[in-house]
Specification:
InterPro entries: ACT-like_dom_sf, ACT_dom, Chor_mutase/pphenate_deHydtase, Chorismate_II_sf, CM_dom_sf, CM_II_prokaryot, CM_P_1, Preph_deHydtase. It catalyses: prephenate + H(+) = 3-phenylpyruvate + CO2 + H2O; chorismate = prephenate. The chain is globular and about 80 Å long. It is built from 13 helices and 15 strands. Strands 1, 2, 3, 4, 5 and 11 form a six-stranded mixed beta sheet that branches. Strands 8-7-9-6-10 form a five-stranded mixed beta sheet. The chain is of the alpha/beta class. Helix content is about 45%, strand content about 25%.
């Protein structure tokens, strides 16, 4: 293909990309109009049957024009997820009149480029109002910013699929009056970041947050004799490498974050588990009302009486009310040796009958119970279709 012909093909690709963006924007606007109808008529956000029918039809149509079914499925999973999350945000805004702020002052760990920064950008991209970023140096400082009304919201990492729960955040939640108002799950893709192109064998010092080192322990073991320096945040690690401008130092962080500091990735996918995700809580001074049409989660903390089977008895309350527990975490109670505080996440809305019944029952069974928050669930399960059927039927 000649250079002239190649330029013509690339020009056409550019034109098609622009058309795709225009059509995606139009599609999103139409789904927002659907959300307005759902608000007026109390219709649930998700219609799984319709989603399955849509995906089934698109797979068949894709086959007719030579598109791989798995490619079509992946593309429309992203589109459907975007639609669901946008509609949930609209319904939540409608259920909380007066909550929309012209400025969203948000406290998070680290500076630009940290994973908390990226999660903050992701969550508030769907919310109206200008985002004011407030990087902090510790989880305690983040919480204090909101408690003192210096920030409106805080974004806190709560657990990671590789390194597990972040205990310091659980401890902060135990002692604050802030409420959980949202959650999100963000993919964590660790890369080895350097300021100058160099070989991995040349790296003598590595900077990262302690949680990141825990998530990449297998990679660290392979490196051998490398000095490990823990930093307050991923952003601090990247800043250190950027300022040093040496070919024997590196940071572990996201490639997107590293680019903000002029760093390049020389190796990617460093985490022990390749499907590495972190879950974040969004907290504020006031709780939110979650519409019953929106899938919700509730988080509580409790301490049980000191008798055999007390925890099992409490958890049975969730089972009896058909509530699906998604997380159980224990933390020591300060000043009470060998006693534990239990954190529980379960699917359900605090305004719904079964959840209200469960909470009242738990209050009677436990020594202490506190609802930390009821919030929209942003874990959008991918729409499933009978793949074999979709691939074989004409």
């Amino acid at each position: 293909m000649s250079d002239t012909a190649l330029d013509a093909v690339r020009k056409r690709i550019t034109e098609l990309d622009s058309q795709l963006l225009t059509m995606l924007a139009e599609r999103r606007q139409l789904t927002n109009e659907v959300a307005e109808t759902k608000i007026r008529h109390d219709i649930p956000v998700r219609d799984v049957k319709r989603e399955e029918q849509l995906l089934f039809r698109l797979i068949k149509e894709g086959k007719n024009v030579g598109l791989d079914p798995h490619y079509v499925t992946q593309v429309f999973h992203v589109i459907i997820e975007d639609s669901v999350l946008n509609q949930q945000a609209m319904l939540a805004e409608h259920a909380n009149p007066g909550s929309t702020l012209p400025l969203n002052r948000v406290a998070f760990l680290g500076d630009k480029g940290s994973y908390s920064y990226l999660a903050t950008q992701k969550y508030f991209s769907r919310r109206p109002g200008e985002l004011v970023e407030m990087g902090c140096q510790s989880f305690a400082e983040i919480v204090q910013k909101v408690e003192k009304s210096e920030a409106d919201y805080a974004v806190l990492p709560i657990e990671n699929t590789t390194s597990g729960s972040i205990n310091e955040v659980y401890d902060q939640l135990q002692h604050t009056q802030l409420s959980i108002i949202g959650e999100l799950t963000h993919p964590i893709r660790h890369s080895l970041l350097v300021s100058q192109d160099t070989a991995i064998a040349n790296i003598k010092t590595l900077y990262a947050h302690p949680q990141v080192f825990a998530q990449c322990s297998h990679f660290l073991a392979e490196l051998g004799n490398v000095e490990v320096k823990t930093m307050e945040s991923t952003a601090h690690a990247m800043m250190a490498v950027s300022e040093l401008q040496r070919d024997d130092v590196a940071a572990i962080g996201s490639e997107a974050g590293g680019s903000l500091y002029g760093l390049m990735a020389i190796k990617s996918n460093l985490a022990n588990q390749k499907e590495n995700h972190s879950r974040f809580f969004v907290v504020s001074r006031d709780p939110v009302n979650v519409p019953l049409q929106v899938p919700a989660k509730t988080t509580v903390i409790m301490s049980t009486v000191q008798k055999p089977g007390a925890l099992v008895e409490a958890l049975t309350v969730l089972k009896d009310n058909n509530l699906n527990m998604t997380k159980l975490e224990s933390r020591p109670i300060t000043g009470n040796p060998w006693e534990e505080m239990f954190y529980i996440d379960f699917e359900g809305n605090l305004e719904d009958g079964p959840v209200q019944t469960a909470v009242e029952s738990l209050k009677k069974l436990t020594r202490y119970l506190k609802v930390l928050g009821c919030y929209p669930s942003e874990e959008v399960s991918p729409t499933k279709v009978a793949a074999a059927k979709a691939l074989t039927q004409d």
